[in-house]
Specification:
Rossmann fold; 13 helices; Arc Repressor Mutant, subunit A; 2 domains; alpha/beta; 318 residues; two-stranded antiparallel sheet; 44% helix; 6-stranded mixed β-sheet; 10% strand
Length: 318
């Protein structure tokens, strides 16, 4: 199988190397004859984000007979893809090639129209810009990659490894993917989705926002019962007025806002304290470990215990 990987000036070495590393390992392990080739808009030398110069890159014609065309990243500013690249992606797709957009590489795939009315994923920092440019696109932050069969997109940075391993798995089977993963010393499957990595700071609010005071109060009383009735009372509003004003100010319902603040506090506690899961559940207002686990898994596709092992900032006990 021939795999064409798009390169451009300013790409990072990591993004460029991931598909080559995974797919070339298939050949190195004797699992299949897979060939990767780098192509760009022209054959001029490229300078990477780290300042290295790459020569010997092929032109667009190198993708003409590729069975997979990969855009492994994209410009940090998310600029629209030029017409020649969009046309190359569409023509490759039309002749049956699989198109893969890894990390911000989802942007040019979307610009080409291949993701219209479909789900996609990209680096979480690009969500807002991508959805603004392509409102018909549904972003899913709960997964590390999405495979439509003909088009695959992945979440940020290291998720490209997951997507490339997935492509090995779908074409050569789980045993082959596991062998490649072992050789590269990476996990064949990773738990959870991109949502676990997204920072969700509280939005800035105007000082005269009537909801500001109740939001600040709620954040400091997460361990208590925070019903809509109680929040409305703190805001000195009727229930109806409070719900309407709350949604206008935050873009969320009171219940969903409180739930996310509790989850944010649970994540912070898991990362920075040695409190038990039971204690964290109580401190964050979930009432029970079961409720915490259910809400945590639904939001981040990972258990609180696994999250703590992955992100714990406290030094391990001897």
């Amino acid at each position: 199988m021939r795999i064409a990987i798009y390169a451009f000036t300013g790409i990072t070495m990591f993004h460029l190397s991931v598909p080559q590393m995974v797919f070339d390992e298939v050949t190195r392990q004797g699992l299949a004859e897979w060939e990767t080739v780098l192509f760009a808009d022209d054959t001029d030398p490229l300078t990477t984000a780290e300042g290295y110069q790459i020569t010997g890159v092929s032109g667009p014609e190198a993708a003409a007979d590729a069975e997979v065309v990969v855009v492994p990243s994209w410009y940090d500013d998310g600029r629209p893809a030029d017409r020649p690249l969009r046309r190359l992606l569409v023509e490759s797709h039309d002749r049956g090639a699989t198109i893969a957009g890894l990390c911000l590489g989802t942007f040019p795939i979307a610009d080409s129209g291949l993701l219209a009315d479909r789900k996609a994923v990209t680096h979480w920092q690009g969500f807002a810009q991508l959805t603004q440019r392509h409102p018909d696109l549904e972003i899913d932050d709960s997964v590390l990659y999405i495979d439509h069969g003909d088009v695959i997109t992945s979440a940020g940075t290291a998720s490209a490894l997951d997507a490339c391993l997935h492509m090995v798995r779908t074409r050569l089977g789980s045993d082959a993917a596991n062998q490649v993963a072992r050789s590269l010393v990476i996990a064949p499957h990773r738990a959870g989705g991109q949502a676990q990595y997204i920072q969700r700071p509280l939005p800035e609010r105007a000082e005269d926002d009537p909801i500001s005071e109740v939001l600040d109060w709620a954040v400091n009383h997460l361990d208590e019962t925070l019903s809509v009735e109680r929040l409305a009372a703190v805001a000195h509003m009727s229930m109806r007025t409070f719900i309407r004003t709350f949604r206008s100010s935050t873009g969320a319902t009171p219940a969903s806002w409180v739930r996310m603040r509790r989850l944010d506090e649970a994540r912070r506690s898991l990362e920075t304290t040695d409190s038990s899961i039971d204690q964290i559940a109580a401190d964050c207002g979930f009432g029970s470990v079961v409720t915490l686990r259910q809400n945590f898994a639904a939001a981040f596709r990972i258990t609180p215990s696994e999250y703590r092992r992955r992100f714990e900032a406290q030094p391990s006990s001897p």
